Amino acid sequence: MHERDLMHEKDQPGQLIDFTAGRTAYRVRRGEARSHQLVKATGILKNPDLKVVDATAGLGRDAFMIASLGVEITLIERSAKVHELLSAALKAASNSSDELAAIVERMHLLLGDAATLLPELKPDIVTVDPMHPERTTSALVKQEMRTLREIVGPDEDSAELIDTALSSAQKRVVLKWPLRASAPINLRKPTFTLSGKTVRYDVFEVANGTRTI
Ligand SMILES: C[S@@+](CC[C@H](N)C(=O)[O-])C[C@H]1O[C@@H](n2cnc3c(N)ncnc32)[C@H](O)[C@@H]1O
């Protein structure tokens, strides 16, 4: 994968990713994580002890929300630069308050390709959120996602990742994808879908670790 150099001040640690302020922090502080579609899609509220892996850590927001609910989560990020930024942001959050430190303690960040690591990890639940196809109405895409795209480029091999997630997960795979875009890989119908304003969560139940797709 080709990584681009960071040239802007805004891309420095603590700027692009900040768990002490912003939308995700606000949502967690207000106790809104429990009712978020992603959280419902994972089913973790009923089973908080399940082994959860976020195969596409990125800015760590989804994993942070899940960890805020008392769930241990492993995050995998293959971009060394994004891993570095995320790692620094997690450290900063941890140093900022006991409450955030407790959340960060449940987030286990790995550097590597999830397509390689997932078969070893054998998680119960895998969340997959590859870079979404570029929209023509780019004003709708938030600045931090545009910056992330500048760093990692498109995830052209997301079909392989989804395929590996489906064969590695013991219970469920949640694929986060734009609301109206067709799936990045030819899949059977999801077990169910939860839709937000701009994204949807396609949930694929897996029977006893056997892929049913
Ligand atoms: C759209 S972002 C994920 C955003 C994330 N859900 C969040 O809450 O901030 C996709 C991220 O997944 C990473 N990624 C894509 N494919 C990967 C793979 N096979 N293994 C590990 N990381 C991957 C990309 O480098 C990028 O940082």
Strand and helix layout:
Layout: H1 23-29, H2 37-42, E1 52-54, H3 61-67, E2 73-77, H4 80-96, H5 98-105, E3 107-111, H6 114-121, E4 125-128, H7 143-152, H8 158-168, E5 172-178, E6 192-195, E7 199-205
Parallel strand pairs: 1-2, 1-4, 2-3, 4-5
Antiparallel strand pairs: 5-7, 6-7
The structure holds S-adenosylmethionine.
Element-level helix/strand string: HHEHEHHEHEHHEEE
CATH topology: Rossmann fold
List cofactors, ions and other ligands. Answer: S-adenosylmethionine
Shape: globular
Helicity level, as a percent range? 25-40%
Let me know the largest β-sheet: 7 strands, mixed
CATH architecture annotation name: 3-Layer(aba) Sandwich
Subunit organisation of the chains = single chain
Question: Would you state the CATH class?
Answer: Alpha Beta
- As a whole number of angstroms, the C-alpha radius of gyration is 16 Å
Mean pLDDT: 88
| Arrangement of strands in the largest sheet | 3-2-1-4-5-7-6
Question: What distance separates the N and C termini?
Answer: 28 Å
Query: What percentage of the residues does DSSP assign to strands (E)?
Result: 15-25%
CATH superfamily caption:
Vaccinia Virus protein VP39
Total strand segments: 7
Which stretches are low in confidence, meaning pLDDT under 50 for 5 or more residues running?
1-14
Indicate the structural class: alpha/beta
Question: What's the number of helices?
Answer: 8
